[in-house]
Each structure stands twice: as C-alpha cells, then as structure tokens.
Write a structure and sequence with these properties.
By secondary structure, the chain is of the alpha/beta class. The chain has helices at about 40-45, 50-60, 75-85, 95-110, 120-125, 130-140, 155-160, 190-210, 235-245, 260-270, 280-290, 300-315, 320-340, 355-365, 385-390, 405-415, 420-430, 440, 450-455, 455-465, 465-475, 495-520, and strands at about 5, 15, 20, 25, 90-95, 115, 150-155, 170, 175-180, 225-230, 250-255, 270-275, 295, 345-350, 370-375, 395-400, 415-420, 435. α3 packs across α8 (about 190-210). InterPro entries: BchY, LIPOR_BchN/ChlN, Nase/OxRdtase_comp1, Protochlorophyllide_Rdtase.
Length: about 525
Amino acid sequence: MSGETRYDATDVVDVDTGTELEGRDVPLTQDGLGCHSGNEMEKAARLAGNSEMLDKFAADYPKGPHDQPQSMCPAFGSLRVGLRMKRVSTILSGSACCVYGLTFVSHFYGARRSVGYVPFNSESLVTGKLFEDIREAVHDVADPEKNDAIIVTNLCVPTASGVPLRLLPREINGVRIIGIDVPGFGIPTHAEAKDVLAGAMLKYAREEIKAGPVPMPASGKSDRPTVTLLGEMFPADPMMIGQMLAPLGLAVGPVVPCREWRELYGALDCGAVAAIHPFYTSAVREFQAAGRPVLGSAPIGLDGTADWLKGIGDIFGLSAEKVGEAQNMFLPAIKAALAATPINGTITLSGYEGSELLVARLLIESGANVPYVGTACAKSEWSAADAAWLEAKGVKVKFRASLEDDCGAMEAIQPDLAIGTTPVVQKGKEMGIPSLYFTNLISARPLMGVAGAGSLQEVVNAAMGNKERMGKMKAFFEGVGHGDTAGVWEKSPNLKPEFRALNAKKLERAAKAAKAAEMI
C-alpha cells in the first residue's frame, strides 16, 4: 500500500471537513461491495453470525417484490432521527461512499452537526480491528458535558462482516451507547430504519426506568393522562391533536421519534400510544412491553376523526357522552373545511413515508376520486382500519408497492394528478400528467383535525389546473429523445444494437449462474 494516504484507525473522521477529529493517521481503503450486492451481503452476514438479527428484521419488516430498497439508503432514516436529537452524537461505520452520500443528504435535509465516521480497510475488517477502532472512537466522543447518548450505526459492509456493536459498553462516563445495524439488505425502507433506532432507544430508556428514578422531561409532567404520538408529522399536528384530546380530559404526550433523550421517559409514561404512522413495529413492541395500549389510524378527515376519538375513549374508559361532546366540538368544523374548496378530479397516490393511506382518506373526503394508493411500507394491524375504509370506497391499496406498481397504476389510470416519489413524478411529467412530490409537498403540511381538513385542497387543485400547461410542455419537447437518446441531436444518434445484444447475453448468463448457485 505504498503511496497511500494513511490515517490512524483509532480516529473518528469528520466527513464534513475531511479531517480527523483527534489528529493521527489510518488506511482509507474500501471494499467493492455495496447495497447492490444484497443477496451476497445477506449470506455473508448470516455466515458472520447475524442470522438472528436478520430473522428479526424479516419478521418486523417483511420484504416486498424486491430484495433491496427502491428508495434512498435506509440508513438515512435512522441517521436523520439521531441528528434531530439534542445532545446526541452519531458515528457511522461503513464504506466511504455510503457515508459521504448519507452525510450529504442529511445536510440537504437540514442537519446542522457533523457525522462521525470510523473508516476501515479489508485488513481491519477481517482481523476485527474495525471493532476496536469503533470502541476507541466511542470512548473519545463520550463526553457527558456534550452528549446524553452516542448512536453507532453499522452500514451494509460491517453488518455483513459481523462487526459486533452489541459488545460495545452500555455507557461510558454516563453517556449512553446505542449500537444498531441498518443494512440495505435487511431494512426495506428508510422509514422503517427510523423504527430501528426509535425502538432501540425506547428499549434502553425502558430499562433505565425499571432500574430506578430517571430525570424529568424538560417539558415537565402533565397533570392529565397523555397520549404518545408515534410517527414524524407536521409540527402543527400534535397541537391539533392536543386540542381534540383536551375535552376528553387528556393531553398529548411526546412525539416519537423524540427530539431529546428525556422525552423518551415521557413517551413511555403515557396512558396510550397513537400509531399515527403504522410501521413502527419495534417501537410498538417496547410500548407494549411497558403495558401501554396502542391505537391505529389517526384523527384525519371526518370519519377518521370520529373513529379515532371513539377509539381513544374506549382505551381510557370514557363515557359515550363525553366522547360525543368532543366529536361535536370538532366534526362540524372539519366537515365545513372539507366542503369549502372541493377537489374534483382523479388522483393516484404513492409514497414511502407511511402516511399515504391517511392522505388518501383526506383527499377522498375532499371529493377526489382516488382509485390507487401505493405505500412502500408493509401491511400492519395499525393501518388495517385505513385500508378497510379505502377499500370500501373502491380504492386499490397496495402495500410494499414497487416503483413498477406505482408507475403502472399511473399509466393505466391516466389521472388528473399523480402524487408520488421522485421517479413517479418524473414519469408523470414525461407523460404530461400534473404531478406532486409526496414528501416535500404533501406530508410537509398539517393533516390532522380542522387544520388538516383544508390543507391539501389548494395545492392539489392548483396542480390539477396545470394540465393544459403540462400538455404544451410535452408537445414542445416532443422529439428530443428519451433515455440514452435524450437531447437535441444534429443528426440521428449512433446506435449500437450489437452492444445491447452482447450485454443482454452477459446478463442472461449471469442470471443463469446465480440460479444454478442457489440450487447447489
């Protein structure tokens, strides 16, 4: 390895500046594997002793038609949860390209702190030196003046190699150490990776509570029973839910994933948990272990709010009269807001946030025709009521929907508006269909209660009004090519069909070889 830049493997590298945090030297070589090698990586992980963990992932997050995620790297979900918490540091262990990409996208979404990185090479990975490097890095960062906890995350390669984060100290100088594995070959979506970390932190906090008194959350303790909200949501939504709970003599509790460690204690100290987003399997398990009942769906739209308030009343043993009073306070205003600016048109909806079914309910009650809803998340008992409501309205609900499912539905239905992920929106616009990106334009709005009832109508109606303009744009760009022939050419592109045929044969041989290997 002569001529190679070296940095000491005991250092944590700040990927934002490219410098070491402590100032010594370690090898930065990388392996050739990545999330594109899903089957091989999973086999390696099982051989390395991670079968139990992968079986747990398979039970918690059953896969769909694909063996690897179709959205961004799943680890972004857990990374984002950690970066949004006060006094929590994050260290990643993985290939440099993965760490770079995750750090870039975390800053794109507003992270304002550095991401720690423990580099490795083939030698340190195989000999176990990487684990020693991680342990030393954690000791270096564990400053109780700065941190309540440190999150250490194994990406694909360290997980496949069996780097045992479970052997890290439980705490150092009073700083909690949370080690998690978030491999792309085990976690189907970045949404579910949020649950991996949320569940791990809730488990740690629950064990702390069992061991003795814990610090009071910064917000204090409510004098009324609280409902913990499970799932990231628009900041106004917990406030709206709190207003609807007040007539019942209840209060809204913390939102999980939390923003600081002490909120975890408040989240566990609740009367019930509202699984607003239904994919938090690990977190639900911890709440149930603490004896907390869980309610699915959400107070969204007219029917959703009425049913959700009734469900809350049943959990807390409230009288029908008291629940009816609360319903009468909010349902008329929700009904009026839904009717104020109705949506007239057909919409296909898909995404990977976990709230797709809730948004579809709101659109339908606003007057829209929604024949198809696709969600990248798996089916669960917490989304069952929403799925049943939608299917009763004639909606095709597709869990673990693939990109092909979503695009196929849009192409077949030819809606007035397509709401979906980036590639769905891209495909829709190519077809001249007005399209909206779910994450930035839909889920970044209030959805609950009165505030949510009219929040989507303006943006949806405005987008559907662009149908004529989309048609003009499609006509204007007609003939500029598509895929590898895109652009304006002075003469016809120089196609090489023989190259395509040769490559197709290579792919066919590789597929046959892989199938043969599986049969051995």
